[in-house]
Specification:
Elements lengths: L2 H16 L7 E6 L3 E3 L4 E8 L16 E15 L2 E14 L3 E5 L3 E2 L2 E2 L3 E6 L3 H10 E7 L3 E3 L4 E9 L4 E3 L11 E5 L4 E7 L2 E14 L3 E5 L2 E9 L3 E9 L2 E6 L13 E2 L1 E9 L4 E3 L3 E11 L18 E5 L3 E6 L4 E13 L3 E4 L3 E7 L4 E7 L3 E5 L5 H18 L16 H25 L2 H10 L4 H16 L6 H8 L3 H12 L11 H12 L3 H9 L8
Parallel strand pairs: 2-9, 11-20, 21-29, 23-31
Antiparallel strand pairs: 1-3, 3-5, 4-5, 6-9, 7-8, 10-12, 12-16, 13-18, 14-16, 15-16, 17-20, 18-19, 22-24, 24-27, 25-27, 26-27, 28-31, 29-30
Helix pairs in contact: 5-6, 5-9, 6-7, 6-8, 6-9, 7-8
Length: 549
């Protein structure tokens, strides 16, 4: 190889090494001290040469033995006479997590790795530790050592600190528990108290914990950073530790009914509200019934649905979606479930609402409980569903008695009436017969369909529409006025839905114009005018007499 070629190759290599992106990289870690006590911090410096930008440098390996309390970065890029140098420096404050020999681990950037560093951490003397514990400390407690699955346990944290103590950063948040639901019981509170001769400030946090599995539930410990002023050492930084807690979670007790949903709570109350709140209601009237279940020491989503029924012979019931809510106070959680029903009175009579019950487990007394909503007596004004049937049975019984009576039987002794009674009875009977013939002829002159259409088209209220439909149905099918609504529901396709909509509109808080339902009412009249399917079939299947007279 010629000398000229070697000179050219050497110059090219120097040029490549001088480029920023191709400069040789290196990583070096150093600490300011390798022998500290547990209240001191160690300053770690990490220099990466050959670059002035590091975006993917991972510091997480340091968190195994140390807490990173502060981190700053410096960088430099310099070019002198065509020679380029660059580096990045990390300055990291590390607080030891425990005493003993700890290791600052090797840190990696790209293909480069720093050397690990050992740091000896000495415990402070018992005298200093006791002095620190008197100045600032944590108190963590559970309101009970054992709890049933899905029941409430309350975790309380209190940080006590005296004058001169500085707390760095915020208190830790809610504990992260994979097998439990954790709800804060309000905001953190602050107060002052006297313990012995010292005055302390107290920061308090409360959390409701609802375990989802039986067994042992571990609540991890935590720490906060603070600084204290010691008598012979000046102000020193310290870590205030809170110990971990253990909660034993019990399964569902064997004495709880297996066919019922598990519902643990400290107290359960039932309440109901009727709107309008009155004991006398009319047929066709609409109202609202609201049933609330309030459970102390439970969440609303844990309250099972309540079975609510009313006699179908007197009511139509429409359920709304339930409303579920939680209220977290400083001491406990209270869940609430509200079930609302829209009701329409369909028939009259005296009825009593069935009792409403909820079965639950009393976690305070460790016993099975049942909370009950007492029945409510209601007077529904209107014809009873069974009135017509009772009258028919009574008439049939009277007819049977008369038919079975012997011909010569005389229930009472006969008395001969005066001679003038017979002419008077004949005259009265003639007058009644003439009145009936006149009423029948007048009724025939009035077309029931035209009268009903005119009443619907001129109706000023929703109630007038209902009256026109019921009057026509009563005359159309020759049924009592009280049974006209049932006849419409049974013999038409859309009658039941239209009557329900008219009932709701009639008792709605907002006035609904009758014209809204005019087209539907006229269509129902046309439907009622058509012959019943049953009567058509009866005429089609009836044979002529075998021997006509």
């Amino acid at each position: 190889m010629s000398s000229h070629f070697r000179t050219y190759l050497f110059a090219l290599l120097c040029l490549l090494l001088s480029l920023p992106g191709l400069a040789l990289a290196d990583i070096i870690s150093t600490v300011d001290s390798t022998d500290i006590d547990e209240m001191q911090s160690v300053q770690l410096t990490v220099r990466i040469t050959g670059t002035n930008q590091v975006d993917d440098f991972d510091l997480s390996p340091l968190e195994q033995d140390f807490e990173i309390t502060n981190s700053t970065t410096q960088s430099q890029f310099r070019s002198v006479n065509g020679r380029v140098s660059s580096w990045v420096e990390y300055h990291i404050a590390l607080r030891p997590l425990r005493t003993g020999t700890l290791t600052v681990p090797a840190l990696v950037w790209r293909t480069e790795r720093s050397e690990p560093i050992e740091v000896r951490v000495r415990p402070v003397s018992d005298t200093v530790r006791q002095e620190i514990d008197r100045l600032v400390y944590f108190e963590v407690s559970l309101n009970k050592p054992t709890v049933y699955v899905q029941a409430q346990a309350v975790l309380t944290r209190r940080l006590y600190y005296t004058v001169g103590v500085q707390i760095y950063g915020d208190l830790p948040g809610a504990p992260d528990l994979p097998d439990a639901v954790v709800l804060p019981l309000g905001e953190a509170t602050s107060e002052a108290t006297m313990l012995g001769s010292r005055r302390y400030g107290v920061l308090e946090q409360r959390y409701a914990i609802f375990p989802e599995r039986s067994g042992t539930l571990e609540i991890p410990g935590f720490s906060v950073t603070s600084s204290v002023r010691l008598a012979d050492r000046g102000r020193r930084g310290v870590r205030v530790l809170a110990e971990a807690q253990t909660l034993q979670v019990l399964p569902v007790p064997d004495s709880y009914p297996a066919h019922l949903p598990w519902f643990p709570a400290e107290d359960v109350r039932l309440a109901e509200r009727w709107q309008p709140d009155k004991l006398r209601l009319r047929a066709g009237e609409s109202l609202t019934r609201e049933i609330r279940v309030v459970a102390k020491g439970a969440v609303g989503s844990g309250i099972p649905p309540v079975e609510v029924t009313l006699p179908e012979s007197h009511f139509k019931q429409y359920a709304r979606p339930p409303a579920i809510s939680d209220e977290a106070s400083g001491r406990t959680t209270t869940g609430e479930r509200t079930q609302t029903y829209d009701l329409i009175v369909t028939h009259g009579g005296q009825v009593s609402t069935p009792p409403v019950s909820v079965t639950w487990w009393d976690t305070s007394a460790d016993a099975l409980r049942t909370s009950t909503l007492e029945p409510r007596a209601l007077m529904l004004i209107g014809e009873l569903p069974s009135t017509s049937a009772q009258e028919e049975r009574t008439d049939h019984a009277r007819t049977t008695d008369i038919e079975q009576m012997p011909a010569d039987a005389s229930p009472v002794a006969s008395v001969s009436p005066p001679w003038w009674i017979w002419p008077l009875n004949g005259a009265l009977a003639g007058l009644v017969l003439l009145a009936l013939l006149f009423a029948r002829r007048r009724e025939r002159r009035v077309n029931p369909m035209k009268a009903a259409r005119a009443a619907i088209q001129s109706a000023a209220t929703v109630g007038a529409l209902q009256e026109a439909l019921l009057s026509y149905a009563s005359r159309r099918w020759q049924v009592p006025r009280s049974q006209a609504a049932d006849a419409i529901r049974e013999r038409t396709h859309e009658g039941a839905d239209l009557l329900d909509r008219l009932n709701r509109a009639g008792y709605s808080a907002e006035r609904v114009p009758p014209s809204t339902f005019e087209a539907s009412c006229l269509a129902l009249l046309k439907d009622m005018k058509q012959p019943d399917a049953s009567s058509k079939n009866q005429r089609r299947n009836t044979l002529p007499p075998l021997y006509p007279a």
